Amino acid sequence: MLEVIVCHVTEVIDHPESPNLTINTVVTKNGSFWVVSNRKELPNGDIVARYDVGDMVYYIPETAIVPEYILKQGYWDDVKNKGILAGSKGNRVKGRKIANILSEGLIFPVSSISGEETATQYFVRNEQTDSIKVVKFGDDVAEFLGITEWVQ
Predict the structure, then answer these.
(1) Confidence (pTM)
(2) How far is residue 142's CA from residue 105's CA, in Å, rounded to a whole number?
(3) Using alpha carbons only, how large is the chain's radius of gyration in Å?
(4) What is the pLDDT of residues 34-85, one digit of tens each?
(5) Residue 51 C-alpha from the chain's centroid
(6) Within 10 Å of residue 147's Cβ, how many Cβ atoms?
(7) How far apart are the first and last CA of the chain?
(8) Other C-beta atoms lying within 10 Å of the C-beta of residue 77
(9) Do the Cβ atoms of 7 and 22 come closer than 8 Å?
(10) What is the DSSP letter of 23?
(11) What domains can be seen in the chain, in order of their start residue?
């Protein structure tokens, strides 16, 4: 059964073969996984790691089928009008070597709200249904986000 687990980034290291990439480690109840990600540019022009140790993310494992609204957050080809992942629609997560390092899935940031009088709350947004769900470490958000499992 496919699970998309809310977890923390536990390690971020520079990719040994590409200065534009980092290797992020996430740990779920199903194991420890490496996810390669590109760096991001800050408004001041600095280029930094997309994720930091401790960041709350949701991990999408191999065999997941990802909805279009999520693919459009960095995994979409506008010219071909489809995702850039595996499968005929480019929407299937598959382990893939990126500059000789196996990336074992995808990660996306979990949003947070902090108030002066309240503890930080974390949530994920389903843009397809225009809804949010408050989450905590270890929650499975596959069904809420519309992420399903690929079956041969």
Answers:
(1) 0.92
(2) 14
(3) 16
(4) 999 999 999 999 999 999 999 999 999 999 999 999 999 999 999 999 999 9
(5) 10
(6) 23
(7) 14
(8) 11
(9) no
(10) E
(11) 5-146 (2.40.50)
